[in-house]
Amino acid sequence: MSRVVLGVSGGIAAYKACELLRRFTESGHDVTVVPTEAALQFVGAPTWAALSGKPVSSRVWDDVHEVPHVRIGQEADLVVVAPATADLLAKAAHGLADDLLTNTLLTARCPVVFAPAMHTEMWEHEATAANVATLRSRGAVVIEPAEGRLTGKDTGKGRLPEPAEIFELALEVLARTAGTSALTGADLAGRHVVVSAGGTREYLDPVRFLGNRSSGLQGYALARAAAARGAEVTLVSANVTLPDPAGVKVVRVETTAQLRDAVLEAAAGADSVVMAAAPADFRPTSVSEAKIKKADDGSSPTIELEQNPDVLHELAHHRPVPGAVIVGFAAETGDATGSVLELGAAKLARKGCDLLVVNDVSGGAVFGSPDNEAVILAADGAEPVVVPPGPKAALAHAIWDQVARRFVP
Description:
Layout: E1 3-8, H1 17-26, E2 30-35, H2 45-52, H3 68-75, E3 78-84, H4 86-94, H5 100-107, E4 112-116, H6 120-124, H7 126-137, E5 141-142, E6 146-149, E7 155-159, H8 163-177, H9 182-185, E8 192-198, E9 202-203, E10 209-210, H10 217-228, E11 232-238, E12 248-253, H11 256-267, E13 272-275, E14 282-284, E15 305-307, H12 311-317, E16 325-332, H13 340-351, E17 355-360, E18 371-378, E19 385-391, H14 392-405
Parallel strand pairs: 1-2, 1-3, 3-4, 4-5, 8-11, 8-13, 11-12, 13-16, 16-17
Antiparallel strand pairs: 6-7, 9-10, 14-15, 17-18, 18-19
Family: In the C-terminal section; belongs to the PPC synthetase family. In the N-terminal section; belongs to the HFCD (homo-oligomeric flavin containing Cys decarboxylase) superfamily.
EC number: 4.1.1.36, 6.3.2.5
GO cellular component, one term: phosphopantothenoylcysteine decarboxylase complex
C-alpha cells in the first residue's frame, strides 16, 4: 500500500480533487489530504476527512507533537498537488514554507506531481513559465493543463486535466519510481516527444471508409508514460475515442494525409517521434461525393487505390531535428518470405528508423487488448529487447527506456 499525499491549493478546481481522492482510496492507497487555507474556502475540511478517513489540517501548528510539517513529507511515497495554482507553483519553486503543504513539499524525498489549474494568462505568464521550468529541472513532474472551459465565460489552456487521467499518470509515476527519488522518474524532463496513435480512415464516399483495427491503446499508453516521465508530449490521435491523457496535447486527425501533416508539424521541434499509429497503406484515387449505391444488376463497383505517403520513412530520412530518435511499429504475421522477426528486421532497414517495435498479430492478437508483447529491434546493432506479455504501459516504458538511451546529451 503506497502512502500518497494529496495537496490541494486554492482554485475552483479543488472540487475535482474529491474524485481524485476517491480513486486513490478505493484502489487501496493510504491518502493524507493537505489543503491550503484557500482550498478550504472551496471544499471544507469535513469533506476531505470523510473521503480520506483521516483528520485534515492546513496549519503547521496542529498536532505539533507529531511534527506533521516534517513527518508527512518524509513518509510519503508520492505527492500529488491538484489543483496547483500559480501561487502554489511559485512558492514551491522558491522554497517557501508558510503552511503545511509547502512544508510537506520541502521535506518530501519522493516523486512530486503538480497538476496546474489557472486562467490562461496566468499559465502563460513568464513568471509561471520560469517557476514550472525550475520545478521540472529539479525532477518534479508538472503536468500541462488541459484546454477548455475555465471560470466564468472564459475558455483556454489552464483547465485541470480530468481526475481519472491524473490518477492514471500518478500510478505510472508510482510504478516506475517505487523506492527511488523523484529525479529518477523524470528522465524525459526537458524533452519534447511526439506519439501517433490509432488507425487512419480513407473515405470512399460520405459514409464509407477503408480502415483498420487499431484501438489506439498502445499509443495512448506511450503518451501517458512519457508525460509521467516529465516529457512535453504531443499525441496525434487518429479516430480514437479514449479520454485525453493528462498533460498531453492531443491533435485529432482522420486520414493518413492529415496524420502526416500533423506529425511533421509537431516533429519540427521534437526530440523523438514514436509512430504507434496504423496508417492506411492505400487510399481511393477518388472519393464519391454521394453515397455509392447498390447496382440493380448485382454488380460491384471497382475501387482504384493509390499508395499513401510513408510517414515513418519520410521522418527517418528527412529528420526535422538532427539526432531525433525515430521509432516505428511493425504488426506482422509472418509468411512464406520470412518469420515475424525477419520481416521486422527487413522493415527496420527499409524504413531507416532507429528502433522498430515488432508485434506478432497473428489471429488478431494485440488489437483492442489492454496487454501487449513485442520485440524492440535497434538499427545501431544493439541486442533485441524482448518485452514479455503484460500491460501496454509496461511496453511503453520499455520503449522510452530505449529512446532515452539514444538521446544525445
